[in-house]
Amino acid sequence: MGSTHTTTALEHEHATHHDHSHHDDHHEESFVSKYIFSMDHKMISRQFLITAVIMAVVAMTMSIIFRLQLAWPGEKFAFINAILGDKWGKDGILDPNMYLALVTIHGTIMVFMVLTGGLSGTFSNLLIPYQIGARDMASGFMNMLSYWFFFVSSAIMLGSCFIEDGPASPGWTIYPPLSALPEAMPGSKLGMTLWLTSMALFIVSSLLGGLNYIITIVNLRTKGMSMTRLPLTCWAFLITAILGVLSFPVLFSCALLLIFDRSFGTSFYLSDIYIGGRPLDNVGGSPILFEHLFWFLGHPEVYIVLLPALGITSEIISTNSRKPIFGYRAMIGSMLAIGFLSFIVWGHHMYMTGMNPFLGSVFVFTTLLIAIPSAVKAFNYITTLWKGNIQYTPAMLFSIGLVSSFITGGVTGIILADSTLDINVHDTYFVVAHFHIVMGLSAIFGMFAGVYHWFPKMFLRMMNKKLGYLHFWITFISAYGVFFPQHFLGLAGVPRRYYTNSNFPMFDNLVDINIIVTVAAIIGALGQVIFLFNFFYSMFRGEKAPQNPWNSNTLEWTTPMANIHGNWPGALPVVHRWAYDYSKPGQEHDFVPQTVPLAEGEHDGGEH
Amino acid sequence: MKLLVLLAIILLIIAGHQLLRIIELSRGLKKTKEWQINDTDNDMMGKAMLAFMILFFLFFFWQINRWIDRSLPAASSEHGVKYDALWDANMYLISFVFLVTNFFLFYFAFKYRGHKNAKAVFYSHNNKLEMLWTVIPASALAFIIIFGLKYWNEIMSAPTDVNKVTVELYAKQFDWTARFPGKDGKLGSTDFRQIGGTNSVGLDTADASGYDDILVKNEFHLPVGREVEMLMRSRDVIHSAYMPHFRAQMNCVPGMVTAFKFKPTKTTAEMRQDPYVKQLMAGINKQREKEGKEPVEFDYVLLCNKICGASHYNMQMTIIVESEQDYNKWMAKQRALKTLASN
Ligand code: HEM
Ligand SMILES: [Cu+2]
Ligand SMILES: [Cu+2]
User: Fold this and answer.
1) N or C: which end of chain B has fewer CB within 10 A?
2) Which CATH number fits domain A39-285: 3.40.718.10, 2.40.40.20, 3.30.1490.190, 1.20.210.10?
3) Do A509 and B284 count as a contact with CB atoms less than 8 A apart?
4) The complex's ipTM?
């Protein structure tokens, strides 16, 4: 491939433009303002990433603990006793209440802290200003607050694991009355209060971040960066942020009403309950109301998790296929369609709640509609590979892994969307398999892809390629090893959130499947040690990164290899073309950065 | 012992550190950087993608071959037969899509693995092609929606059989109670404030139609071939009445009465003779023998399928489906509430 493209003439027109205040004042920053209360999008991005990595390790360890219990119920594990102590892991046997608590915190951390806060927080922060040619986020201060709310929220969630009665345990969906009544389970006492507090702070963080991302993309695009030249990453972050801003407030009200019911005796979600040996005063509320409010966020949430990953891989697949992304406009169109439709499908989580069946039919229809833009995206990725010149960076491997898991998990969504078919697999392991593959794996793969690809921009060093390869293959193979067999547990009727399958004789013949799943999970978890090593080691000792290691077109690779305030030392770059001119006929190199002016008669946007 | 482990760990760290030093030093001598992707990498990874695909597909078929016989037996209810047919049709469809799209993905990943002298084709869109793959999934989905909703409306419609059996499933942490209406054919109304003592399901004592209601625990019976209307209630938190053999499920929500209807088509005795069920039970009993547990016979079960607390995993009830005569005999042995209370 061609040589590395370096700076453009524009960057030398120094000092003529002063469109941002502090990009060239060179005062020494204090440690605190540089590393802790930083308002720089690049530092905030790294803070989000490292916090998310730590949270992911915690959540993964939890999954190993409860997987051990599921594969070998009643067996004694010194490991479990060592981690949980005598109260929750007496003799090395996991306590049933703790099982539910671990499942709940695992799910909550994975969905919210890792794949919402971590994924969007890291990459929206890093890439939005870089890729649209802005000095920083619209509000650095709000951005800093966004991280610190996230940090406190994560800390409370972790802290709640160490209290007397244990953390929240009604599942990550926290359906009342289970979550509302301290009599119902130990996890509905203080642990639940902390969960709700943590989530309220998380929502604040997410809103501060989201508003900032939207405003930045809308207002701070550099000259020439029209919306139709915007890289798909930024499109994805924009739509994600809009979804978050519209849906998280609903979760907030949902949680607030639950707090009222828990602490102030209201009855939004409670009616006709007899528990702890006495009838409760609450009448007139409805737990179904909670479910509607929760899933009004909950469904968009899965796209909040997924879209950034899809945006990241669009960029990586195009760059490393050395081809334009196929159907750029269709990709935007399908993301917009997915974004819109994701607000009117929430009822597919509620077919079996006693909701009016006619309402169910409407949700069947809208849900299956959303499969169409999703299919278009998958086909477009595959066509982008076709006749490409694929460069197998670790990021590219994970991106292809994402497309595979997006398809494999997506097709079972068609079954679950069909209210009739949902009757028998709702809340079984079939669902666990589906959402882990389509949401968990795809988003995690997207996150890994992003880390490998943009590591040089974040830490100015390169990650080790061979370790990256090893990490990918272990992760990819074990991931399917964990989640594919779970479909078969679902076909046998195994419900989710069961502490053990051994109390129903009908599940006795599934022991070997559960063991395969757990063994694969352990191998996968060990594989992550390779990543952790590579990540932290490369941060300090990796090879120095050149300016544009992947020969990429987007603007972030025109910034100097130093984390400077304001991103570009001189004037902001001017954009002349879309981001996907890879292998364009008649060009010297197989990539043409967005800052290169169009030649006479040259067309933009994929025409030539 | 602990000291030895500590020592071993320290030695390992030192060895690791030395190894890294050597790698780092040798890095300086090489012309190409470790992170740069060369043709060997591309070739290896491209081929690995193809190999993965083959293994993945083999794994897929291996699992089906090995585990599909552990799926639930064919449905034991009238609507369940249609459910199964719809399930199969959808499963074939999505398995086909899964195989074909994954094939193209991994095959292209292999075929177009990079090469120093290769150049990608600049191909940015094709409206016809994109239209094609919007329309094809759309029509497949139309088929799914039409059949899905047709069955859904049938399943969820109000019961029509004049001869129907009515049962109430009452859920609480952590067990089930089934309530039959007794001779008058009417379930007595309820009031959660009156729960307590022998009134475990909260019958309204002012309503005389509840006096002959019949409450059973652990096991209840149903006649074969008659429509069953199930009403569900909960005392405390949300539970879900899940009867997988009948393809039946409905949440039990405090403050609400939910419903599900179905018609059992096979008796428990018939199921025990069914060849598929026999092989299923053989597998189960083989495993039980290994664990030193008693062998079991097939039974229909009711499970709780909505997280409801510590013993969620153990909320069970057995359902016996039998002939009309046997059902009537069983029913005759049950005692009405009023007589229970007066004891
Ligand atoms: C390390 C690999 C992982 C393993 C072995 C694993 C395993 C599990 C298991 C066994 C459950 C409990 C299922 C049940 O009883 O209902 C579960 C729940 C869950 N997992 Fe994972 N998981 C992993 C990674 C992830 C990832 C990456 C995500 C991100 C989306 C995720 C999200 C969830 C959610 C949302 C739940 C539901 C929690 C609840 O029921 O409240 N998991 N996981
Ligand atoms: Cu959804
Ligand atoms: Cu229950």
Assistant:
1) N
2) 1.20.210.10
3) yes
4) 0.93
